[in-house]
Amino acid sequence: MDASERIRTAAVLLFARQGYAATSIRDLGRAVGMTNAGIYHHVSSKEALLADLMRVAQRGVTEATERMLTPFDRPADRLGVLISSLTAIHARNPMTTRVMDGELRSLTPGSAAHDEIIALRDAYEEHWKRALADGVAEGTFRVADQKLTRLALMSMCTGTSEWYRPDGASTLEQVCAEFVTIGLAAVRAPAQAVATADFSLLPEYPWEPPDE
């Protein structure tokens, strides 16, 4: 792993554990055995480092999701892919996704990086909005409040970054399958077999710290 990747791994770990605001360049330097000047040789600022991590992470989620959704038209299939892919991405990359989900507030409001991350998030969430709206429109889903349903389902999926462990009682495939079942029940869809995520298409983040 080169110096830039070591810095990113340390940053993800520190930002996820103690928060961006509580992490200094000196902390990063200690974590990778470099001076402050050495860190700044690879990154222009702490905020630029955060923005880069969030940009790459969110783009990876969006692009992988779009590839997995391409073969499917039915809203139920698309919802199954959305639930299982978001669940798996967070379970496999808990530190990266905690930073991606929780540190938008640390980017300067109105900055180019801040606006870019918001645009990437909006593009991703649009897939959820369309799947739910299409399901309601065709009568497959019965949802009183599409926004609340979307937020509830997405929160269920992203929560795996906090509790899922590969050596736990359930495999990731089992967790994803159960979450899809829960999601279909939440939208009152008829019992049916639906598509789920292709794990081979999930994004990989080289800086994600190894499991402890």
UniProtKB/TrEMBL annotation:
<dbReference type="GO" id="GO:0003700">
    <property type="term" value="F:DNA-binding transcription factor activity"/>
</dbReference>
<dbReference type="Pfam" id="PF17932">
    <property type="entry name" value="TetR_C_24"/>
</dbReference>
<feature type="domain" description="HTH tetR-type">
    <location>
        <begin position="1"/>
        <end position="61"/>
    </location>
</feature>
<feature type="DNA-binding region" description="H-T-H motif">
    <location>
        <begin position="24"/>
        <end position="43"/>
    </location>
</feature>
<keyword id="KW-0238">DNA-binding</keyword>
<dbReference type="InterPro" id="IPR036271">
    <property type="entry name" value="Tet_transcr_reg_TetR-rel_C_sf"/>
</dbReference>
<dbReference type="GO" id="GO:0000976">
    <property type="term" value="F:transcription cis-regulatory region binding"/>
</dbReference>
<dbReference type="InterPro" id="IPR050109">
    <property type="entry name" value="HTH-type_TetR-like_transc_reg"/>
</dbReference>
<dbReference type="InterPro" id="IPR001647">
    <property type="entry name" value="HTH_TetR"/>
</dbReference>
<dbReference type="InterPro" id="IPR009057">
    <property type="entry name" value="Homeodomain-like_sf"/>
</dbReference>
<dbReference type="InterPro" id="IPR041490">
    <property type="entry name" value="KstR2_TetR_C"/>
</dbReference>
<dbReference type="Pfam" id="PF00440">
    <property type="entry name" value="TetR_N"/>
</dbReference>
<protein>
    <submittedName>
        <fullName>DNA-binding transcriptional regulator, AcrR family</fullName>
    </submittedName>
</protein>
